[in-house]
Specification:
about 260 residues; 2 domains; 13 helices; globular
Length: about 260
C-alpha cells in the first residue's frame, strides 16, 4: 500500500507549482492514517470522500508531509530535474492549542444549532459561526454593502473593540439571517453565555467555540491563514490591520467565508 509520501515521490518528474497546489489541497482532505477503515482505500478515492473533521490530518502531520514534499522538490531542483524551485509553505494554525480543545465537530455544531429548539438561538449560533465575530462585536456592528456584497461593518470610530486589528469588514454568509443581530441584542451576554454552555456537548466548549470552529474550518478548507486572520480581526505577518488600513479585496474575503457550511 502506498503512503502519502510515496505518492509525493512518484510525481518528482512533474513537480511544478500546480502539483504543489494540488498536494496542499489534498492534505486538507485526507484522513489520519491510523484509522483502520481508511488504511486500504486508495488516495484518489479518499480525496473524493467527505471525511469527518475529527478524522482529518492534524496540522502537525500536514506539515510533516509538506516538509517531505519540499525536500523532494529541493533535491529535484538542485539536480536540474526541474527548472524552478518549488515550495509549499507550512501551515500555522490561527487557533491556539487551548482553543483547539473546544472546537466543535460538524455533528456537534449541527446539534447545537438545530437541537436548541429555539428559532432565535438557531439564527444567533449560525451568525456567530458563519461570521467568526466575537459575541460582543455583534452588538457593535452595522450592515454595509461593498461591491454589491452585504457586510458586517466593524470600522466605525465610535465603537470600541479589543485591538486595532479588530476593526474590520466581514462579508455576510449567504446562510446568515441579518435579523440575528437584533436577536442577540435581546440577550445580555451573561444570560446568552449560560444558555449556550448548557446546550454545549463538551465541558470545555463555550460560546467562543463557534469562533474557534470558524477559524479551524476555514483553515481546513484551504483558506490562506492571512485571510483567516483578517476575518478574525487578528494581526498577521506582513500586515497590521487597523480601522485605517485596507486588507484583502472584499471578493476574496467573501469567497473565503462561503467555504463554510453547516
Amino acid at each position: 500500500m502506498k503512503t502519502y509520501c510515496d505518492v509525493i515521490s512518484s510525481i518528482i518528474d512533474t513537480i511544478d507549482f500546480k502539483s504543489a497546489d494540488r498536494i496542499q489541497i489534498a492534505l486538507h482532505k485526507l484522513p489520519k492514517m491510523n484509522i483502520q477503515k481508511y488504511k486500504n482505500i486508495p488516495v484518489k478515492k479518499l480525496l473524493q470522500m467527505v471525511i469527518p473533521e475529527n478524522e482529518l490530518l492534524s496540522v502537525r502531520t500536514k506539515n510533516d508531509y509538506i516538509k517531505t514534499f519540499n525536500a523532494v522538490a529541493k533535491f529535484a531542483f538542485e539536480r536540474s530535474y526541474i527548472e524552478r524551485p518549488v515550495k509549499i509553505n507550512s501551515i500555522t494554525s490561527t487557533v491556539s492549542t487551548r482553543a483547539e480543545r473546544d472546537i466543535l465537530t460538524k455533528p456537534e455544531l449541527k446539534q447545537l444549532i438545530y437541537g436548541c429548539c429555539d428559532t432565535k438561538l438557531e439564527k444567533i449560533y449560525k451568525l456567530l459561526y458563519l461570521s467568526g465575530m466575537r459575541p460582543s462585536e455583534v452588538y457593535k456592528c452595522s450592515i454595509t454593502v461593498i461591491d454589491n456584497i452585504k457586510c458586517f461593518d466593524l470600522t466605525s470610530n465610535e465603537i470600541e473593540l479589543k485591538t486595532k486589528s479588530s476593526y474590520r469588514i466581514i462579508p455576510v454568509h449567504k446562510d446568515i439571517d441579518i435579523g440575528a443581530v437584533q436577536f442577540i441584542c435581546e440577550f445580555d451576554m451573561s444570560t446568552l453565555s449560560k444558555i449556550t454552555s448548557k446546550l454545549m456537548i463538551g465541558k470545555k466548549q463555550t460560546m467562543y467555540s463557534l469562533r474557534h470552529s470558524f477559524a479551524n474550518d476555514l483553515i481546513k478548507s484551504g483558506v490562506d491563514n492571512a485571510v483567516v486572520s483578517e476575518l478574525l480581526g487578528h494581526t498577521h505577518k506582513g500586515m497590521t490591520l487597523s480601522r485605517y488600513a485596507k486588507g484583502y479585496d472584499i471578493n476574496v474575503l467573501s469567497a473565503a467565508i462561503e467555504q463554510l457550511s453547516i
